[in-house]
Amino acid sequence: MTDIIKIGLHKPTGQFMHVDKASNGLSCDCECLKCGEKLEAIQGEIRAKHFRHYTDKDCDGSQETALHELGKQILIENTQVQIPQFGLISYTEPVAEKRLEKIRPDVTAKYSDQSVHFEIFVSHMVEDKKDNFIKEKQLRCVEIDISDEKTSTYEEIKRKVLETVENKRIIFWETEKVQQTNNESNGCMLQFLVLIGVFLGLAWFISKR
Predict the structure, then answer these.
(1) I want to staple 57 with a disulfide (CB 3.0 to 4.6 A). Which of 41, 53, 87, 113 is the partner?
(2) DSSP codes joined into one string, 46-81
(3) Confidence band of 182 (pLDDT split at 50, 70, 90)
């Protein structure tokens, strides 16, 4: 029994296509990411929409890889995303797999004149080595979990990537450093106010003698 195939590779554009966006039958012009076989879009009223191999090949279609690529593609095709703590942010110039020293974030974009990175989690969370590198280099980075969306509709996947926040994890955001600096400044201010209070107390005491 093969897995349900929801995402294929659209041959004319080289883009990943969800069956919800495909033309019916072979006119979808899609192929299997894993084996390269023609895919047929099945969009009847009874069964859930899905792709099937034209020759009924026993192949799972590499759906984890396809979903990972579709997640990146959705980010690249859009300019806004909801993230924890900061809500809706607008970004520009999104690109996939842009090398950054020894890592390749899934998607890199610009936000507030600085780089922001996105990692798509389908089968594996960001590994510790990469996670630590991001934190050490203080790189803005958000991980987006769509691991449960292998059989979801296109709109459900898009909503998980762009709109929901419960499935997202901030790996690093530079406001953590700003907050630490603010805390240190607040501590210094408190010490200063305490010294002022002590000085005024002494002055009052001396004046009463």
Answers:
(1) 53
(2) SSPPEEEETT-----TTHHHHHHHHHHHHHHH-SEE
(3) very low
